[in-house]
Amino acid sequence: MKITLERNHLLKSLGHVHRVVERRNTYPILANVLLKAADDRVELRATDLDIEVTEMVPAMVSTPGTTTVPAHTLYEIVRKLADGSEVRLETDGSDNMVLTSGRSRFNLACLNPDSFPDLKSGSFGHEFQMPAPALRELIERTQFAISNEETRYYLNGIYFHTVDVSNAGTLLRAVATDGHRLARAEIEAPAGSGGMPGIIVPKKTVGEVQKLLDGAAEEDVKVEVSDTKIRFSLGSVVLLSKLIEGTFPDYDRVTPKNNDKQMTVDRQSFAIAVDRVSTIASERGGKAVKLHANEGMLELSVTNPDHGTASEELPVEFETEGFEIGFNARYLLDIIGQIRSENAIFLFNDAGSPTLVKEEGEARALYVLMPMRV
């Protein structure tokens, strides 16, 4: 193999594919990136056996060929080369690849590409396209609530599915929960997505897709779904991932329907106040903050037996007398951070029941937060 590439093109593509490679691997080949040169382009591919990322890069191919080299090492080398320089990669059939750029020269150990795993895609029953900003918004509004608890593996991702809603038509909905809080966001279902099976996209995949979308403008993302895999195609990048096998819980059952105590508060002022009083909150006590609402005024307070107390008052719209409830301050801030309107609306039932948090107007996102004893 003998090829010449533009350093910036190679770096951008390596930035996309090398992230899925784990730093520690049982199988040495999984630490490598596959390079396959032919027809004036190079295919770069990396996998961790659950996710596979592939990207095509334009190149001047003098001699076609295929090899694998350490992904993170190659990325770091290319990252440190001069901006705009040319990179030459050459193998001679041995177990080494020579990388040269300007006066720099590196010899990298190669592994046989025949042993590089191929994450078979199979056939996809559903295929649709959607704007990159729409998919990014679904992810951003729900990702924070993904559970890290391995025993409940079916919560370790975002649940995507379509729902038919009266007066709104078919919606594509994303849901995540860790048992303490729940995030739900939805958009108008893209053409072709109706009737797709409910799928759970793993947390790592969600993170990789989000990073790809961060560099996208108004491009469309092609999404293909089967019962076991999902494939995202954006520009020259293709990300294939296994799905989490399992049944996502009936989130609608825990979403409050009859919370009748409504509190409206300025989102920014509330977030600053929660952050401020929680400074002295105890991690051992679950970073608990108490909300005491009473006819137009909200008092936030924290009590820490080791450090003292803190309190702050805010004006709110609230007509019920003397209502108290406690929350984990970090969870509360995570949810408030997703509110896009000027005010946040809290809907309470009682101190022991889930609270519903949403934006003003008809925004298609809502959040459920479990209370704490304080």
Account of the protein in words:
It is a single chain. This protein is α+β, with helices and mostly antiparallel strands. It contains seven helices and 25 strands. The protein has helices at residues 7-17, 71-79, 132-142, 203-214, 251-254, 267-277, 329-336; strands at residues 2-6, 32-38, 41-47, 51-58, 60-63, 65-70, 86-91, 96-101, 104-109, 126-131, 157-165, 169-177, 181-188, 199-202, 220-225, 229-234, 237-242, 261-266, 288-293, 297-304, 308-315, 323-328, 343-348, 355-359, 365-369. The strands form four sheets. It has an eight-stranded antiparallel beta sheet. The chain has an eight-stranded antiparallel beta sheet with strand order 14-11-12-13-25-24-23-18. A hairpin with a 2-residue loop joins β2 and β3 (41-47). The longest helix is centred in the middle third of the chain and has 12 residues, at 203-214. It is elongated and about 80 Å long. The termini are far apart. The relative contact order is 0.11. The model has no long low-confidence stretch (mean pLDDT 92). It is found in: Cytoplasm. Keywords: Cytoplasm, DNA replication, DNA-binding, DNA-directed DNA polymerase, Nucleotidyltransferase, Transferase. GO terms for molecular function: DNA-directed DNA polymerase activity. Residues 1-119 form the DNA polymerase III beta sliding clamp N-terminal domain. Pfam families: DNA_pol3_beta (PF00712), DNA_pol3_beta_2 (PF02767), DNA_pol3_beta_3 (PF02768).
Using brief descriptors, characterize the structure shown.
single chain, 374 residues, alpha+beta, 8-stranded antiparallel beta sheet, elongated, DNA_polIII_beta, nucleotidyltransferase, Beta sliding clamp, DNA_clamp_sf, transferase
